[in-house]
Amino acid sequence: MPFMSVKFNLQKRVKLAQGLWMFYWLSVIVGISIFSLGIFFKIELRKRSEVMDNSESHLVPNLLILVGMLACGLNAFGGKMCHDALDPIKFSKMKPMLKPFMLLSCGFSMLLLLVALLCFLMQFSIYLTLAEGLKNTIRFYKDTDTPGRCFMKRTLDITQIEFRCCGNNNFRDWFEVQWISNRYLDMSNDVVKDRVLSNVEGKYLMDSVPFSCCNPGSPRPCIQHHLTNNSAHYDYDHRTEELNIWTRGCREAVFSYYSSIMTSIGVLIIITIILESMDVAGLKYLSTSLETMTDPENPECESEGWLLEKGFKETFADVLTKLKTLGRANQVQEGGDAPEVSPP
């Protein structure tokens, strides 16, 4: 007995074909959206490549571009098949392509599922890449005249302003590095000289942050130098007063941005998988309802459509049997190819 069988007449077949045509073209629009999001995500990764130490993975955006193009092509072809299905001449021509097309659609859904999983799993990779990349970017912030690092200062300043963040984990990361180049330090000044000599590594460390850490929404003029020295500022206590610099770390801020993009794309792809499954199921109903017409020359006659020709258990058992038969055939072939050993 067929699994989930439904009776069809001409009106139902026409409505099914029209509805499927609309669903397939909706899937084409979703495919264009996935393709566009893949390009957008790739551009966003490229824009902040320096803060990720140029080691970010473009696997996800590349796969999104690929599946977006495949979705457009497959679903446009599926829409054409639904449009031509009610024409007996055209249906007879496309009938041999129905089964391969549905198998290809199922395989495409599996690819979409893989991409959706990567959208969620690869977020951890981006988190680690950001942690290491931001650490190095802060360390090389001062090297504006070093080839390959000339634009790190500009990139990090723009990132801190855009994402309203400061440092890697927080603003105190700037206290641990020398972020002012030696070319801008007056080594004849005793204060500067003492500070450099007092450091084991010979670095000029300060409890200060770059201007890009300042919060323009603060009513008080930005205090970016001597942040932990209460006596250096009037009516100021860094332990109790809310600082007028960004306290959120850039790793958390930028990761949150990329994570929201990848999660949104993952959800969209899951919706696409559901849509593709509905398309395949509808196409199966349409093809079987056209094949089982009692009088093919009479379009008004009734027919029956189904998802599976047999019951679910019977179909599953048949698939297992075919797989076992295929496995045995391979074993026999391998045994036949083995060289015969002549007796001594």
TrEMBL record:
Record membrane topology: Multi-pass membrane protein
InterPro entries: Peripherin/rom-1, Peripherin/rom-1_CS, Peripherin_LEL, Tetraspanin/Peripherin, Tetraspanin_EC2_sf
SUPFAM superfamilies registered for this protein in UniProt: Tetraspanin (SSF48652)
Compartments reported by the entry: Membrane
GO cellular component terms, A-Z: plasma membrane
PROSITE patterns for the chain: RDS_ROM1
Record has Zinc as a keyword: no
Keyword Lipoprotein: no
GO biological process, one term: cell adhesion
Pfam family, one: Tetraspanin
Broad class of where this protein is predominantly found: membrane
Keywords, comma-separated and alphabetical: Cell adhesion, Disulfide bond, Glycoprotein, Membrane, Transmembrane, Transmembrane helix
Transmembrane segments: 21-43, 63-82, 103-126, 255-275
Assigned protein family: Belongs to the PRPH2/ROM1 family.
Name of protein: Peripherin-2
Source organism of the structure: Nothobranchius furzeri
Gene, per the UniProt record: PRPH2
